[in-house]
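Homework help board

Subject: predicted structure for assignment chain

Our instructor gave us this sequence and asked us to write out the predicted structure in token form, then describe one feature. I got the tokens but I'm not sure how to describe them. Can anyone check?
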Amino acid sequence: MGGPTGLDYSSLYPLLDRVATSATEWEEMFSDIQLLELEALAAMNEKD
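My token output:
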């Protein structure tokens, strides 16, 4: 508890709305970002 929990998606949605040229691209970008988020959280939570 008290460690990293993930991204604040409320700041991500407007960015995706601006840069995505289609609904499909929006969904692909969102999926890619979620994958990066999961990998980053796993790396941050690794025990030495």
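Reply (TA_rk): Your tokens look well-formed. For the description, you could write something like this. The mean pLDDT is 92. That's the kind of observation they're looking for.
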